[in-house]
Amino acid sequence: AARRVDLPMNAYTPMLLMLLTQAVLFVHVIAFALCVSAVLLEDWRLLATRRINAPRLARSARRLTFGLGVLWCSGLLLVGLDIAASAGSWSPSDKLMAKLAVVSVLTLNGAALHAWVFPRLAGLGARVESQPWWAVAMGAVSSASWLYATFVGVARLAAPWLSFSGFALLYAAAAGMAVAVALVMTGGAASAKADA
Q1: Predicted TM-score (pTM) of this structure
Q2: What phi and psi values does residue 51 have, to the nearest 5 degrees?
């Protein structure tokens, strides 16, 4: 008969950490995919119809708020699990710092959208072109931030070549281009000049 060997609990710890990390990563990726798809779908609807459906946008915003909360919780848990697995030799990578910076901007911009833009949508009219330039710019920053977070998430090959400042410069360029394109497409550039 085979002899059973009982391993101490700490022998299972690396495997348990790996399984827990994989489960949290799965939740994180699914939440991210749902959030990005919601943002892209709303952007597509706005561009295709040129009309704002404030109730639908509010529903999407509530889902994104919940999804962003899941992303923050799962992301911070992933960082904690990475620290636990490193046995004290952990230091944050430039890629991780870039992720945290982009998600922080995304969160603050989302809070500003909820506080200032969404309450005004119904009162300003249903056409995208009727929105103030700053609302269009904030929406563009949101879309660019979600897409850039996607880039940073899959930037395994680029990460060794990019420092934090490299990631930051690319993000600033992406956000700037998104704002410029959004203002031109909505006629907001003209109202921005008129406001100046």
Answers
A1: 0.82
A2: -125, 145
Residue 4: predicted pLDDT: 62
Distance CA 123, CA 66 (A): 26
Rounded distance, CA 179 to CA 142, Å? 10
Proportion of the chain above pLDDT 90, given as a percent: 53
Burial of 84 per CB tally in 10 Å (0-12, 13-18, 19+):
middle
CB of 102 within 8 A of CB of 145? yes
Average pLDDT, whole number, for the chain? 86
Residue 127 pairs in a beta bridge with 51
Stated as kind and residue range, the H or E segment containing 155 is none
Per the structure block, which two tokens stand in for 180?
């410029």
Is the separation of the CB atoms in 146 and 106 below 8 Å? yes
